[in-house]
């Protein structure tokens, strides 16, 4: 994995119980709203916690606003990446640097509500779960196109990677320290976490919630990035596309046999055929098949090339925890009666 800077004491009993990783890219409009709601939830839980805000090379005031919030919120950490590395890389950077016994990842747009986090932690503790997925019970706030493409993506992933991939579960999840350390030990540099985490096989559960509207700003996941995510999910976890040329070749051979038989029958019957149209169509067809096969092979060769380069998925420019003069204080705990009400 790309980050080896974390010390061996991560997840120790004296450290935070809960880490919340929030990848951000140009979220200056949503960040104040997100911080207000998230802090209210975490302070009310009565647990030692930290919030790891990962700035993925934002070009607006996102990083500046995080530093301003840290002045009054000591549990907030700032991890700033050297450049924009993508949502999955930013999420991975936060997971690798989080110190908590449990680590929750959540986006900054508030479509995944932070109010679900206490229920995730409760289920993980009471049922001895290492992974708790946030599952979207209702996506009515998304466009019909987004709902359709998301449903197609999850159907494809469950078909390729297995039924262990939960439907309608994005990157809003809770991981135990054991699950995080297992992720750290994987040699894969750019894993698609929503596919890799279920593959690990840890005991898991689900918490359903209603997906809300974006708090502010515009989506940072346009169609091009969704297509890229789908391509990365398929090529990083399944060799099925490599078998596609084989089936195309078999189908082409069968079709060619029929066409040859037709041509021979026409020749024996004395019929003359100009031939240029059929020849033109055949050249186009076989050329398209060959290009498709080369493209699929090139996708995998490209991944091999990237892996051999050994470049990290992200570069950390700053981690506020590295220069804080004193350890982050624990939040004010509620009175015992209030704490028992919260835990129940």
UniProtKB/TrEMBL annotation:
<dbReference type="InterPro" id="IPR029044">
    <property type="entry name" value="Nucleotide-diphossugar_trans"/>
</dbReference>
<comment type="similarity">
    <text>Belongs to the glycosyltransferase 2 family.</text>
</comment>
<dbReference type="InterPro" id="IPR050256">
    <property type="entry name" value="Glycosyltransferase_2"/>
</dbReference>
<feature type="transmembrane region" description="Helical">
    <location>
        <begin position="247"/>
        <end position="268"/>
    </location>
</feature>
<keyword id="KW-0328">Glycosyltransferase</keyword>
<feature type="domain" description="Glycosyltransferase 2-like">
    <location>
        <begin position="19"/>
        <end position="183"/>
    </location>
</feature>
<dbReference type="InterPro" id="IPR001173">
    <property type="entry name" value="Glyco_trans_2-like"/>
</dbReference>
<feature type="compositionally biased region" description="Low complexity">
    <location>
        <begin position="335"/>
        <end position="344"/>
    </location>
</feature>
<feature type="region of interest" description="Disordered">
    <location>
        <begin position="319"/>
        <end position="344"/>
    </location>
</feature>
<keyword id="KW-0808">Transferase</keyword>
<keyword id="KW-0812">Transmembrane</keyword>
<protein>
    <submittedName>
        <fullName>Dolichol-phosphate mannosyltransferase</fullName>
    </submittedName>
</protein>
<keyword id="KW-1133">Transmembrane helix</keyword>
<keyword id="KW-0472">Membrane</keyword>
<feature type="transmembrane region" description="Helical">
    <location>
        <begin position="274"/>
        <end position="297"/>
    </location>
</feature>
<dbReference type="Pfam" id="PF00535">
    <property type="entry name" value="Glycos_transf_2"/>
</dbReference>
<dbReference type="GO" id="GO:0005886">
    <property type="term" value="C:plasma membrane"/>
</dbReference>
<dbReference type="GO" id="GO:0016757">
    <property type="term" value="F:glycosyltransferase activity"/>
</dbReference>
């Amino acid at each position: 994995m790309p980050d080896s800077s974390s010390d061996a004491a991560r997840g120790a009993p004296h450290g935070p119980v809960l880490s919340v990783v929030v990848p951000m890219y140009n979220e200056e409009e949503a960040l104040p709203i997100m911080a207000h709601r998230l802090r209210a939830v975490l302070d009310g839980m009565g647990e030692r916690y930290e919030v790891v805000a990962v700035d993925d090379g934002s070009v607006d005031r996102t990083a500046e606003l995080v530093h301003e919030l840290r002045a009054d919120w000591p549990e907030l950490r700032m991890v700033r990446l050297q450049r924009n590395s993508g949502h999955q890389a930013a999420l991975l950077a936060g997971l690798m640097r989080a110190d908590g016994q449990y680590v929750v990842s959540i986006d900054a747009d508030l479509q995944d509500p932070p109010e679900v986090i206490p229920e995730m932690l409760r289920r993980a503790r009471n049922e001895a779960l290492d992974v708790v997925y946030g599952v979207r019970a209702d996506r009515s706030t998304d466009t019909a196109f987004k709902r359709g493409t998301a449903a197609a993506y999850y159907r494809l992933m469950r078909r390729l990677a297995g039924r262990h991939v939960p439907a309608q579960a994005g990157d809003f999840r809770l991981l135990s320290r054991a699950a995080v350390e297992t992720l750290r030990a994987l040699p894969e540099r750019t894993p698609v976490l929503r596919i890799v985490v279920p593959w690990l096989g840890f005991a898991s559960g689900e918490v359903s919630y209603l997906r809300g509207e974006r708090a502010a700003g515009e989506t940072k996941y346009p169609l091009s990035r969704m297509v890229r995510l789908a391509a990365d999910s398929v090529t990083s976890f399944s060799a099925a596309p490599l078998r596609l040329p084989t089936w195309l070749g078999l189908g082409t051979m069968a079709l060619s046999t029929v066409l040859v038989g037709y041509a021979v029958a026409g020749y024996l019957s004395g019929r003359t055929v100009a031939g240029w149209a059929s020849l033109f169509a055949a050249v186009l067809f076989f050329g398209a098949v060959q290009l498709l096969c080369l493209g699929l092979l090139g996708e995998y060769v490209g991944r091999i090339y990237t892996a051999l380069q050994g470049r990290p998925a992200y570069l950390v420019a700053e981690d506020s925890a590295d220069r804080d003069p004193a350890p982050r204080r624990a939040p004010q705990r509620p009175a015992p009666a209030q704490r028992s009400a919260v835990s129940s």
